[in-house]
Amino acid sequence: MASKAPKNDIDESLITTGKPKTKAVGLPAVLNSLKISIDQMGPLRSAQTLLAVNQVKGFDCMGCAWPEGDKRHTAEFCENGAKAVAEEATRRTVPPEFFAEHSIADLMSHDEYWLGQQGRLTHPMLLDAGATHYRPVSWNEAYSVVVDELAALDSPDEAVFYTSGRTSNEAAFLYQLMVRGIGTNNLPDCSNMCHESSGSALVETLGIGKGTVSLHDVDTAPLIIVAGQNPGTNHPRMLTSLEKAKKNGGAIVAVNPLPEAGLLRFENPQNPLGLLGTRFGGGTSLADDFLQIRLGGDQALFRGLGKHLLEQEEATGTVFDHDFIAQHTLGLEDYLDSLRGTSWDEILEASGISKAEITKVGDRMIASPGTIVCWAMGLTQHKHSVATLRDVVNVLLLQGNVGKPGAGVCPVRGHSNVQGDRTMGIFERMPAAFHDALDQRFRFSSPRRHGFDTVAAIRSMRDGGAKVFMAMGGNFVRATPDSNVTDAALRNTRLTVQVSTKLNRSHLITGRRAVILPALGRTDRDTQAGGDQRVTVEDSMSAVHASTGRLKPASTEMRSEIEIVCQLADRLFARTDSPYTENAPQLDWISAQADYRVIREHISAVVPGFDDFEAKIDKPGGFVLPNGPRDSRTFTTATGKANFTANDLQYPKVPEGRLLLQTLRSHDQYNTTIYGKDDRYRGIHGGRRVVLVNAEDLADAGLADGDPVHLVSEWADGVERRAENFRAVTYPTPRGCAAAYYPETNVLVPLDSTADISGTPTSKSVILRLEKAVGTAAVQAEADEAVETSLEEVAR
């Protein structure tokens, strides 16, 4: 039997700390996976479910987007994948009786962990204007509320349609079609907050906003630089590929402000020796070099690597790939001039590491026949992130490290289908060719003016522009920056609609009215009029494959995301009084709902690379989308070539007595979903409200390990943003840098502090001061007062 949901929130007074781990996975990860799975699903359901994760005829893990190989293990999942599956396939439920028992004010008093642990949402629910509780409604009534509000808008741009990365290709394609049929491109998604900087830099320089490597490339790469990424927690199955690379003779360089266990040593649970652990001869040492860089210093590192390659090229004439540069690139001389104009002193100041460390990695690149650079949020969430990633591409282009085996760019996406959603059109600025194909296929005129990204959507809601907000999955209010501003923005709307599997904070921070539409998940069997259905997803390396849920849904009232979109669109475009009927996409929405093959046929006609879609996903492992830089060294940039770029060196300047904060995940969470109370690899147990700080920085601030502190961010607008009642923890971070978990610290990230060009919130560049709290009793009193104030606001 599965266990019951916890009765209590995380008790932050029980936090204990220990030394960070120097190895990852192994037997503790296996045991923790089994414990959480059995707690949530029970033993039989756990076996049935986990043995189907990432299998050819099973379902795709709803966690990270790391790809699967051709040969799959019986247990093709990691610890965090098992947690994600257990959360979705849980036997716990949140029926209408739960909402009758718990008011909004009551639910607001609980933390994210408690909310998520309650179980699966089972019925459509409506929060009436001024009501204290959600009430159950029929699907017809729920759809009518949404359609009536959309039809009453003065402009289509008064609606915002958000998407999380869990949504399937088929659901995403229909969702964006419905939204463009309404007449807006307001399609913000989780990419806006994560890898938008990657897309901005890569489209400009290489002509495609995706990675250019395959799984085989990673497994066989001579040199891999992993920068701003923690695969041990965020993409644990990547460790298997890094282990293969090491065993094939490759070298790995880890670049990160924090020493992360997963990049130090990996104990592979698929290997008997790995399970036994290091003391019995198991495990693989992964990082050959660890560069403990300052936050925001990555551009300086890659400029330093470029400068070293240039200096060695000028000395020997043998470092650059001259044929590749001449045939496939433009802009080299401008880039080299910018390198010559950047001093080593500035590079060392900005990066916080030594010249010897940089040139050692540079020498590895010179000696290597191929180099891959992998990265994640550590590089994408700074003001100068796009410039940083341009310089990553610059260094790779010097040696022709694009479009050859074991070389290329590898942005590692965080959510299972966030890349597929973008391919399907979930973007506020899709290219004209996509709109042209969409218009031709569905015989309507899609809007061409750019829509809102996530930050612009929040601004619009805040300012009274957007009046309806709909989210296809996710936890918008806790995934976004500047929590207080975001909360107020959502409360300023007329209607918020959440298509969800689990309860979260976004169901409590609502517009004047709110609707919850309970959705099927990846694990659930999806049966429509045409029989059992399958969907597809795209991983980080552009491979598309099928996903088929097997479990009986927890409630007959749950609906697939596709069905929800089709029912809303059918009602909206069929209404005689609808302002959207005249220019509606010509699609039989009910036929598309009945048989998802109809949707895939439409996708194949609109999206390049999806021809013969149905037959391709019948093949085990699916198929790989075309990728010009990888496949043929062709670059669909504005110049038709791969572009070197000249970038000014930028890095955060932190005032005296202040720190630079990065927000990050604990090991017991995935994005905004909190699985538990521990961050095992970092030695944090029993709580989450901690700030990791260098011991000398704590001493300079008159603080000691364990002291209660308030976190106060400072930005140009002069607004004081506070996250209170944290515990200071000494940690091996570079001087001047700190780290703390989100979503608790998203309140500190200013809404208008965004990356140049991409608009991504700067969640890794928050200027912070530590304010000593006055004591445990006072801390608790302040916390109680804050809760009471919050409840009073909800009541008002």
Q: What can you tell me about this protein's structure?
A:
The protein is α/β, with parallel strands linked by helices. Among the domains are: 93-193 and 417-621, Rossmann fold (3-Layer(aba) Sandwich); 196-415, Dimethylsulfoxide Reductase, domain 2. Helices cover 38% and strands 16% of the residues. The protein is built from 33 helices and 33 strands. It has a six-stranded mixed β-sheet. A six-stranded mixed β-barrel has the order 25-32-29-31-30-33. Helix 9 (196-206) packs across helix 21 and helix 15 runs antiparallel to helix 18. It starts with 15 loop residues before the first strand and ends with a helix.
Described by strand count, sense and barrel closure, the largest sheet is:
6 strands, mixed
What does the overall shape look like?
globular
**How confident overall, as mean pLDDT?**
91
Strand content: 15-25%
Radius of gyration from the alpha-carbon trace, in angstroms: 25 Å
Task: Report the end-to-end length measured between terminal Cα atoms.
Answer: 42 Å
User: Low-confidence stretches at least 5 residues in length (pLDDT < 50)?
Assistant: 776-796
Annotation, overall tally of beta strands = 33
The CATH architecture assignment of the domain at 93-193 and 417-621 turns out to be 3-Layer(aba) Sandwich
Strand order within the widest beta sheet: 6-5-18-17-16-7
Q: What structural class is derived from the secondary structure elements?
A: alpha/beta
- CATH top level label of the domain at 93-193 and 417-621: Alpha Beta
For this structure, the CATH topology of the domain at 93-193 and 417-621 is: Rossmann fold
Number of helices: 33
Range of helix content: 25-40%
